[in-house]
Amino acid sequence: MILNLDLKERSYDIIIERGVIKKAAEQLNLKRKVMIITDAGVPSEYASCVLSQSKVGYVEVIPEGENGKSLAVYENVLSKMLEYGFTRSDCVVSVGGGVAGDLTGFCAASYMRGIDFYNIPTTALAQIDASIGGKTAVNLRGIKNIIGAFYQPKKVLIDPDLLITLPPRQLSNGLCEAVKMAMTSDAELFEIMEEGNIYDNIDTIIERSLKIKKSVVEKDEREGGLRKILNFGHTIGHGIESEEKLNGLYHGECVALGMLPMCSTSARERLTKVLKNLHLPTSYDFDIQKIIEAMRHDKKSDGDCITVVLVEKIGTFELKKMSYDELTERFTSYIKKENK
Amino acid sequence: MILNLDLKERSYDIIIERGVIKKAAEQLNLKRKVMIITDAGVPSEYASCVLSQSKVGYVEVIPEGENGKSLAVYENVLSKMLEYGFTRSDCVVSVGGGVAGDLTGFCAASYMRGIDFYNIPTTALAQIDASIGGKTAVNLRGIKNIIGAFYQPKKVLIDPDLLITLPPRQLSNGLCEAVKMAMTSDAELFEIMEEGNIYDNIDTIIERSLKIKKSVVEKDEREGGLRKILNFGHTIGHGIESEEKLNGLYHGECVALGMLPMCSTSARERLTKVLKNLHLPTSYDFDIQKIIEAMRHDKKSDGDCITVVLVEKIGTFELKKMSYDELTERFTSYIKKENK
């Protein structure tokens, strides 16, 4: 299946096809210098597979997790490209999850003020969400995504076969973004997930999720307004991720916790069921003040209030400015472990 | 005088007016957090003047010269903005030359994926050329502008009064870009400069130069093709700048040397006269091989050939792919000191 993301001169195709990585050269222009960036957690044969199809290829392995998104790693990758003589006509390919994609995308956006960028996401999180939309970034001083650019890939190859090697927790981590899309925009997709056979329906779930994201990105490429719906669960989610002591939680797990306080009671009940089925957390013991502090540094922060996405009825949403006080209260009432 | 640079949703005004820095708040939205970036070589009263008009202002002084455009300085500025709690709704202002503008612009382009950027150029080089067009950058491993973004300012304030404090050599450095614009696009402007009273005609020279640049940028924002005419003299010029031992030369001086081999004999004779009148160099003793090597790393490099701008008749230009060998030959014939 091919989805075309329509952004005028920045339009690109998303190819969703089992086995597509093995014929990447049919889809991507690899007849030039190709910098393949992968992370230490990705099976090395995926990068090798792309390397073997490249005219002049190089593989750079970045650290797994958020450490891969530092300015030091960024500088190192750009230095290698310079050393290998990459020009504006060459390209970079991300083979990995959201971290590799964000870092690679920002390298592509800024090397010589922009060269071609291809994305081959290998995690459920990246296939369902992070690989399209053009948000690239690195972290600074422990704050996620504070430096970056809006920069679209030239093409995205999604090979659901690559998910086979993922541990179940990683898979659920990604599926949480599909739950998010369903909650705000696709009641039918939510019902498919409610029925329980999530793993059997993975291709459908990826496709429907990407269609939602595609439609949002097309209407609001640079996060002017509408795109905020993609942040459902992320405002608190990022706060949780930034809070050092909780580094053990995955992004999707933080988003799961972030969505729960932002629903009506009925929506929350149905959501809780789906999250539990995916073994995603529904409560946690937090230091709320620390998290709120981290959130004041968040991009979505706007002075003393913060714009959040609320889901009253599954498949619909509303944007609301909320004070940090109300946020703290919802947080405490709905996901703090002691109260459950 | 107001010039509007028309780039659709990225359009902006360039205000050319003596004394405009003193009423910057009438032109710029300074009723928010304002990070003012200036360099150690700029009179500190210019930044103070903007600071006094800002609601919540901060001044960051970066090192003078190319050292101000390192990734370390970039990281330091972004860290300060994070520390001071800058959000997407705040802004940065460059008060300085091309170095401050390039660094500030890239900070603005990438902080939270883009915040408002104002430019108040204080050098002739920046007022005549560098402050408009949206090319932002930092250096890496001694290679100029290898990392950056196309990112347009929201407004540019050009106050020719600020040039009063410049030493003559700095003024000539900037005027060389006006000579460049005239050579490719404005025979009449070249004649004004040929007449000799360059300093008396500085307002006219700034305006006419900016009009040429504006028209080129409007037609080719991201340096697809036409914008290459702005690189007249810069291909070799950048090569010279990259060559370590010649660090004593200013950008405009390198461009002066870079233009000479790229003209017809008659154009070169007239150009030489104007450059000499501005006390700009017309010959130098180079290590050609080193310079050619640096140029292979240049953005404008395209494999074994390089696209250069040639001026046959003043006020016109042509683009040509030239081999590195021919480049070396022209270089040796026309600006190597021994041959003069």
Spell out the blueprint of helices and strands:
The structure is a homodimer of 340-residue chains.
Chain A: E1 2-5, E2 12-16, H1 24-27, E3 33-39, H2 44-51, E4 56-62, H3 71-83, E5 91-96, H4 98-110, E6 116-121, H5 124-130, E7 135-140, E8 143-150, E9 155-158, H6 168-185, H7 187-194, H8 202-219, H9 234-242, H10 251-259, H11 265-277, H12 288-296, E10 301-302, E11 305-310, E12 318-323, H13 324-335
Parallel strand pairs in A: 2-9, 3-4, 3-5, 5-6, 6-9
Antiparallel strand pairs in A: 1-2, 7-8, 10-11, 11-12
Helix pairs in contact in A: 3-4, 5-6, 5-8, 6-7, 6-8, 6-10, 9-10, 9-12
How would you describe this protein?
- Two copies of one chain form a homodimer.
- With 340 residues, chain A is α/β, with parallel strands linked by helices.
- Chain A folds into two domains: 164 residues, 3-Layer(aba) Sandwich (Rossmann fold); 172 residues, Dehydroquinate synthase-like - alpha domain (Dehydroquinate synthase-like, alpha domain).
- In chain A, 41% of the residues lie in helices and 20% in strands.
- Chain A has 13 helices and twelve strands.
- In chain A, strands 1-2-9-6-5-3-4 form a seven-stranded mixed sheet, sandwiched between helices. A three-stranded antiparallel sheet of chain A has the order 10-11-12. In chain A, strands 7-8 form a two-stranded antiparallel sheet.
- Chains A and B meet through α3, α4, β7, β8 and β10 of A and α3, α4, β7, β8 and β10 of B.
